[in-house]
Amino acid sequence: MPYVKIGLLMLAGLVLFLFALNYLAEGLKAVSGEKMQEWLRKFTRTLVSSILVGVIVTTLLDSSSAVIIMTIALVNSRALTFRQAVGIVLGANIGTTFSSQLIAFTIGQWSGVPMAIGLGLMVLARRESFVQWGQVILGFGLLFLGLFLMEEAVEPLNQLPRVVDWMKGLADPWRGVLAGAGVTVLLQSSSATVGMSVVLAGQGLLTLGAGIAVMMGAELGTCADTLVASIGRTKAAVRTGLFHLFFNLFSILLGLLLIGPFTDLVHALSRQASAERQLANAHVLFNALGVLLVAPLAPWLATQMERWIPDSQTSRKQPVLSS
Protein backbone atom coordinates (compact mmCIF):
# COMPACT_ATOMS: atom_id res chain seq x y z
CA MET A 1 0.00 0.00 0.00
CA PRO A 2 2.76 2.59 0.72
CA TYR A 3 4.00 2.15 -2.87
CA VAL A 4 0.51 2.71 -4.31
CA LYS A 5 -0.15 5.81 -2.22
CA ILE A 6 3.27 7.29 -2.95
CA GLY A 7 2.98 6.44 -6.64
CA LEU A 8 -0.42 8.07 -7.02
CA LEU A 9 0.66 11.26 -5.25
CA MET A 10 3.89 11.35 -7.28
CA LEU A 11 1.91 10.87 -10.49
CA ALA A 12 -0.46 13.69 -9.56
CA GLY A 13 2.45 16.04 -8.88
CA LEU A 14 4.24 15.04 -12.08
CA VAL A 15 1.14 15.50 -14.26
CA LEU A 16 0.50 18.90 -12.69
CA PHE A 17 4.15 19.88 -13.20
CA LEU A 18 4.09 18.90 -16.90
CA PHE A 19 0.76 20.67 -17.41
CA ALA A 20 2.15 23.78 -15.72
CA LEU A 21 5.24 23.76 -17.98
CA ASN A 22 3.06 23.70 -21.11
CA TYR A 23 0.59 26.21 -19.67
CA LEU A 24 3.40 28.56 -18.68
CA ALA A 25 5.05 28.28 -22.10
CA GLU A 26 1.75 29.07 -23.84
CA GLY A 27 1.23 32.07 -21.57
CA LEU A 28 4.71 33.41 -22.28
CA LYS A 29 4.22 32.92 -26.01
CA ALA A 30 0.94 34.85 -25.79
CA VAL A 31 2.65 37.69 -23.90
CA SER A 32 5.54 37.87 -26.35
CA GLY A 33 3.44 37.43 -29.48
CA GLU A 34 5.72 37.28 -32.51
CA LYS A 35 8.57 39.04 -30.67
CA MET A 36 10.39 35.79 -29.87
CA GLN A 37 10.77 34.88 -33.52
CA GLU A 38 11.71 38.47 -34.37
CA TRP A 39 14.48 38.40 -31.73
CA LEU A 40 15.76 35.12 -33.12
CA ARG A 41 15.95 36.61 -36.60
CA LYS A 42 17.20 40.10 -35.74
CA PHE A 43 19.76 39.63 -32.99
CA THR A 44 21.71 36.62 -34.24
CA ARG A 45 24.24 38.26 -36.54
CA THR A 46 27.26 37.00 -34.58
CA LEU A 47 27.96 33.84 -32.61
CA VAL A 48 28.04 35.69 -29.28
CA SER A 49 24.74 37.48 -29.92
CA SER A 50 23.17 34.20 -31.08
CA ILE A 51 24.22 32.51 -27.82
CA LEU A 52 22.83 35.40 -25.76
CA VAL A 53 19.52 35.28 -27.64
CA GLY A 54 19.33 31.53 -27.07
CA VAL A 55 19.93 32.03 -23.34
CA ILE A 56 17.32 34.80 -22.99
CA VAL A 57 14.56 33.22 -25.07
CA THR A 58 15.00 29.80 -23.43
CA THR A 59 14.93 31.39 -19.97
CA LEU A 60 11.68 33.17 -20.86
CA LEU A 61 10.01 30.14 -22.42
CA ASP A 62 11.49 27.68 -19.88
CA SER A 63 12.01 25.07 -22.59
CA SER A 64 15.16 24.45 -24.61
CA SER A 65 13.27 21.96 -26.80
CA ALA A 66 10.66 24.58 -27.73
CA VAL A 67 13.34 27.14 -28.63
CA ILE A 68 15.43 24.68 -30.66
CA ILE A 69 12.36 23.34 -32.48
CA MET A 70 11.34 26.95 -33.25
CA THR A 71 14.89 27.55 -34.52
CA ILE A 72 14.73 24.45 -36.73
CA ALA A 73 11.46 25.72 -38.20
CA LEU A 74 13.02 29.13 -38.93
CA VAL A 75 16.08 27.50 -40.52
CA ASN A 76 13.77 25.30 -42.59
CA SER A 77 11.95 28.41 -43.86
CA ARG A 78 15.36 30.08 -44.50
CA ALA A 79 14.57 32.92 -42.09
CA LEU A 80 17.73 31.86 -40.21
CA THR A 81 20.96 30.34 -41.47
CA PHE A 82 22.44 27.18 -39.99
CA ARG A 83 25.35 29.19 -38.55
CA GLN A 84 22.94 31.50 -36.72
CA ALA A 85 21.12 28.45 -35.36
CA VAL A 86 24.36 27.00 -33.94
CA GLY A 87 24.68 29.89 -31.48
CA ILE A 88 21.02 29.69 -30.48
CA VAL A 89 21.37 25.95 -29.74
CA LEU A 90 24.39 26.63 -27.53
CA GLY A 91 22.58 29.42 -25.70
CA ALA A 92 19.46 27.29 -25.21
CA ASN A 93 21.54 24.76 -23.28
CA ILE A 94 22.48 27.48 -20.78
CA GLY A 95 19.00 29.03 -20.65
CA THR A 96 17.38 25.73 -19.70
CA THR A 97 19.30 25.72 -16.39
CA PHE A 98 17.18 28.63 -15.11
CA SER A 99 14.34 26.25 -14.24
CA SER A 100 16.56 24.08 -12.02
CA GLN A 101 17.70 27.18 -10.11
CA LEU A 102 14.06 28.16 -9.65
CA ILE A 103 13.08 24.68 -8.49
CA ALA A 104 15.91 24.61 -5.93
CA PHE A 105 14.26 27.45 -3.97
CA THR A 106 11.77 24.85 -2.59
CA ILE A 107 8.94 27.36 -2.15
CA GLY A 108 6.16 24.95 -3.04
CA GLN A 109 4.20 25.70 0.13
CA TRP A 110 3.75 29.26 -1.14
CA SER A 111 2.38 28.16 -4.52
CA GLY A 112 -1.12 29.34 -3.64
CA VAL A 113 0.01 32.99 -3.66
CA PRO A 114 0.95 33.28 -7.37
CA MET A 115 -1.99 31.02 -8.25
CA ALA A 116 -4.42 33.39 -6.52
CA ILE A 117 -2.82 36.47 -8.10
CA GLY A 118 -2.80 34.90 -11.55
CA LEU A 119 -6.38 33.69 -11.35
CA GLY A 120 -7.47 37.10 -10.07
CA LEU A 121 -5.89 38.82 -13.08
CA MET A 122 -7.48 36.34 -15.48
CA VAL A 123 -10.95 36.77 -13.99
CA LEU A 124 -10.99 40.48 -13.15
CA ALA A 125 -8.72 42.13 -15.71
CA ARG A 126 -10.26 43.62 -18.83
CA ARG A 127 -7.10 44.18 -20.85
CA GLU A 128 -5.93 41.14 -22.79
CA SER A 129 -2.31 41.75 -21.81
CA PHE A 130 -3.19 41.55 -18.09
CA VAL A 131 -5.10 38.32 -18.69
CA GLN A 132 -2.06 36.85 -20.44
CA TRP A 133 0.24 37.85 -17.58
CA GLY A 134 -2.28 36.28 -15.23
CA GLN A 135 -1.84 33.01 -17.11
CA VAL A 136 1.94 33.28 -16.73
CA ILE A 137 1.73 33.91 -12.97
CA LEU A 138 -0.83 31.13 -12.52
CA GLY A 139 1.47 28.82 -14.48
CA PHE A 140 4.35 29.52 -12.09
CA GLY A 141 2.07 28.75 -9.15
CA LEU A 142 0.95 25.46 -10.66
CA LEU A 143 4.59 24.58 -11.36
CA PHE A 144 5.52 25.03 -7.72
CA LEU A 145 2.41 23.16 -6.57
CA GLY A 146 3.35 20.18 -8.74
CA LEU A 147 6.85 20.18 -7.23
CA PHE A 148 5.39 20.44 -3.72
CA LEU A 149 3.19 17.39 -4.34
CA MET A 150 6.21 15.43 -5.59
CA GLU A 151 8.23 16.48 -2.52
CA GLU A 152 5.46 15.28 -0.24
CA ALA A 153 5.16 12.03 -2.21
CA VAL A 154 8.83 11.07 -2.10
CA GLU A 155 9.43 11.92 1.57
CA PRO A 156 8.41 8.42 2.83
CA LEU A 157 10.68 6.72 0.27
CA ASN A 158 13.60 7.07 2.68
CA GLN A 159 11.97 4.33 4.75
CA LEU A 160 11.61 1.85 1.86
CA PRO A 161 14.82 -0.22 1.48
CA ARG A 162 14.16 -1.33 -2.11
CA VAL A 163 13.76 2.24 -3.32
CA VAL A 164 16.84 3.42 -1.41
CA ASP A 165 18.93 0.60 -2.88
CA TRP A 166 17.76 1.39 -6.42
CA MET A 167 18.55 5.08 -5.95
CA LYS A 168 22.02 4.21 -4.70
CA GLY A 169 22.55 2.25 -7.91
CA LEU A 170 22.18 5.49 -9.90
CA ALA A 171 25.52 6.56 -8.45
CA ASP A 172 26.96 4.42 -11.27
CA PRO A 173 27.28 7.21 -13.89
CA TRP A 174 26.22 5.08 -16.87
CA ARG A 175 23.12 3.84 -15.03
CA GLY A 176 22.27 7.37 -14.01
CA VAL A 177 22.64 8.71 -17.56
CA LEU A 178 20.48 5.93 -19.03
CA ALA A 179 17.81 6.49 -16.36
CA GLY A 180 17.79 10.25 -16.99
CA ALA A 181 17.62 9.81 -20.76
CA GLY A 182 14.83 7.23 -20.54
CA VAL A 183 12.69 9.32 -18.19
CA THR A 184 13.18 12.43 -20.37
CA VAL A 185 12.15 10.62 -23.56
CA LEU A 186 9.12 9.22 -21.74
CA LEU A 187 8.04 12.55 -20.24
CA GLN A 188 9.19 14.68 -23.23
CA SER A 189 10.64 17.19 -20.76
CA SER A 190 14.20 17.51 -19.47
CA SER A 191 12.95 20.14 -17.00
CA ALA A 192 10.66 17.54 -15.41
CA THR A 193 13.53 15.04 -15.11
CA VAL A 194 15.90 17.59 -13.60
CA GLY A 195 13.10 18.87 -11.36
CA MET A 196 12.45 15.39 -9.98
CA SER A 197 16.20 14.91 -9.47
CA VAL A 198 16.38 18.14 -7.46
CA VAL A 199 13.42 17.00 -5.34
CA LEU A 200 14.95 13.56 -4.74
CA ALA A 201 18.31 15.12 -3.86
CA GLY A 202 16.56 17.33 -1.33
CA GLN A 203 15.07 14.25 0.33
CA GLY A 204 18.48 12.59 0.52
CA LEU A 205 17.53 9.88 -1.99
CA LEU A 206 20.00 10.98 -4.66
CA THR A 207 23.65 11.77 -4.02
CA LEU A 208 25.15 14.71 -5.88
CA GLY A 209 27.06 12.37 -8.21
CA ALA A 210 23.93 10.37 -9.02
CA GLY A 211 21.94 13.55 -9.56
CA ILE A 212 24.57 14.87 -11.96
CA ALA A 213 24.48 11.60 -13.94
CA VAL A 214 20.67 11.73 -14.20
CA MET A 215 20.89 15.40 -15.21
CA MET A 216 23.35 14.52 -17.99
CA GLY A 217 20.96 11.80 -19.15
CA ALA A 218 18.18 14.39 -19.32
CA GLU A 219 20.37 16.47 -21.64
CA LEU A 220 20.66 13.45 -23.93
CA GLY A 221 16.95 12.56 -23.79
CA THR A 222 15.88 16.07 -24.78
CA CYS A 223 17.58 15.59 -28.18
CA ALA A 224 14.78 13.18 -29.18
CA ASP A 225 12.28 16.04 -29.70
CA THR A 226 14.62 18.12 -31.83
CA LEU A 227 15.70 15.16 -33.96
CA VAL A 228 12.07 14.30 -34.68
CA ALA A 229 11.38 17.96 -35.51
CA SER A 230 14.18 17.94 -38.13
CA ILE A 231 12.89 14.88 -40.03
CA GLY A 232 11.79 15.76 -43.55
CA ARG A 233 13.17 19.29 -43.31
CA THR A 234 15.83 21.05 -45.37
CA LYS A 235 19.46 19.99 -45.08
CA ALA A 236 20.22 23.08 -42.97
CA ALA A 237 17.41 22.20 -40.54
CA VAL A 238 18.69 18.60 -40.30
CA ARG A 239 22.17 19.94 -39.54
CA THR A 240 20.69 22.04 -36.72
CA GLY A 241 19.06 19.01 -35.09
CA LEU A 242 22.21 16.94 -35.46
CA PHE A 243 24.41 19.72 -34.07
CA HIS A 244 22.24 19.74 -30.93
CA LEU A 245 22.71 15.97 -30.61
CA PHE A 246 26.49 16.07 -31.23
CA PHE A 247 27.01 18.94 -28.80
CA ASN A 248 25.09 17.18 -26.03
CA LEU A 249 26.85 13.86 -26.71
CA PHE A 250 30.26 15.56 -26.52
CA SER A 251 29.35 17.31 -23.25
CA ILE A 252 27.95 14.12 -21.70
CA LEU A 253 30.88 11.91 -22.68
CA LEU A 254 33.35 14.46 -21.37
CA GLY A 255 31.25 14.81 -18.23
CA LEU A 256 31.23 11.06 -17.67
CA LEU A 257 35.02 10.91 -18.02
CA LEU A 258 35.46 13.72 -15.50
CA ILE A 259 32.43 13.15 -13.27
CA GLY A 260 34.59 12.63 -10.16
CA PRO A 261 36.56 15.91 -10.44
CA PHE A 262 33.42 17.73 -11.62
CA THR A 263 31.44 16.55 -8.56
CA ASP A 264 34.30 17.66 -6.30
CA LEU A 265 34.31 21.07 -8.02
CA VAL A 266 30.56 21.50 -7.42
CA HIS A 267 31.04 20.50 -3.77
CA ALA A 268 33.83 23.06 -3.41
CA LEU A 269 31.83 25.87 -5.03
CA SER A 270 28.58 25.08 -3.16
CA ARG A 271 29.93 23.81 0.14
CA GLN A 272 27.37 25.62 2.30
CA ALA A 273 24.44 25.13 -0.08
CA SER A 274 21.58 22.66 0.26
CA ALA A 275 21.53 19.42 -1.74
CA GLU A 276 18.93 20.92 -4.07
CA ARG A 277 21.04 24.02 -4.70
CA GLN A 278 24.18 21.95 -5.28
CA LEU A 279 22.50 19.93 -8.03
CA ALA A 280 20.98 23.07 -9.58
CA ASN A 281 24.43 24.71 -9.56
CA ALA A 282 25.91 21.58 -11.14
CA HIS A 283 23.33 21.89 -13.95
CA VAL A 284 24.38 25.48 -14.66
CA LEU A 285 28.11 24.73 -14.43
CA PHE A 286 27.91 21.62 -16.64
CA ASN A 287 26.03 23.33 -19.47
CA ALA A 288 28.01 26.58 -19.25
CA LEU A 289 31.36 24.76 -19.40
CA GLY A 290 30.14 22.73 -22.38
CA VAL A 291 29.26 25.92 -24.26
CA LEU A 292 32.58 27.57 -23.35
CA LEU A 293 34.48 24.57 -24.70
CA VAL A 294 32.52 24.25 -27.95
CA ALA A 295 31.84 27.91 -28.81
CA PRO A 296 35.41 28.66 -30.08
CA LEU A 297 35.15 25.63 -32.37
CA ALA A 298 31.60 26.40 -33.56
CA PRO A 299 32.58 28.04 -36.91
CA TRP A 300 34.88 25.12 -37.78
CA LEU A 301 32.23 22.57 -36.71
CA ALA A 302 29.61 24.36 -38.81
CA THR A 303 31.90 24.20 -41.85
CA GLN A 304 32.51 20.47 -41.35
CA MET A 305 28.78 19.76 -41.00
CA GLU A 306 28.04 21.79 -44.14
CA ARG A 307 30.55 19.61 -46.03
CA TRP A 308 29.13 16.43 -44.50
CA ILE A 309 25.49 17.38 -45.22
CA PRO A 310 25.67 19.86 -48.13
CA ASP A 311 22.68 21.87 -49.27
CA SER A 312 20.97 20.79 -52.45
CA GLN A 313 21.54 22.86 -55.59
CA THR A 314 18.02 24.29 -55.47
CA SER A 315 18.30 25.43 -51.86
CA ARG A 316 21.63 27.12 -52.55
CA LYS A 317 19.89 29.44 -54.98
CA GLN A 318 17.48 30.60 -52.27
CA PRO A 319 18.34 33.84 -50.42
CA VAL A 320 19.67 33.31 -46.92
CA LEU A 321 20.71 35.63 -44.11
CA SER A 322 24.41 36.18 -43.61
CA SER A 323 25.90 34.65 -40.49
Automatic annotation (TrEMBL):
Give the keywords, sorted: Cell membrane, Membrane, Transmembrane, Transmembrane helix
Enumerate the transmembrane spans: 51-75, 130-150, 206-229, 241-262, 282-302
Q: Which InterPro entries match?
A: Na/Pi_transpt
In terms of superkingdom, the source organism counts as Bacteria
Which coarse location class describes where this protein primarily resides? membrane
Any one Pfam family here would be Na_Pi_cotrans
- Membrane topology field: Multi-pass membrane protein
Where along the sequence do coiled-coil regions lie?
A: none
Report the locations given in the UniProt record.
Answer: Cell membrane
Classification via PANTHER family:
SODIUM-DEPENDENT PHOSPHATE TRANSPORT PROTEIN 2B (PTHR10010:SF46), SOLUTE CARRIER FAMILY 34 SODIUM PHOSPHATE , MEMBER 2-RELATED (PTHR10010)
UniProt-recorded name of the protein: Na/Pi cotransporter family protein
Q: Which organism is it from?
A: Larkinella insperata
